[in-house]
Request: fold
Amino acid sequence: MFDDTQKRVNFVQAYRESVESYEHLHEELVTLLQSKGGQTKNLSDDEYEQYRELAHRRDLAYNHMKTLERALLDDQ
Reply:
């Protein structure tokens, strides 16, 4: 029983970490855009490349978060 409970606790912790990762990346994107008037057209080429990389990482974090969320809900 302990092993099953510990696995669930570890899984929930992994989900929480994935949410925090997504939120952090999202906040970085918002901050970058706000510093340039909220529009990507105001970004330099380097900033736009940074924006795309952050957006890609945020999308991956979102997909991971949702996968864990579905697994948690299906396991109940």
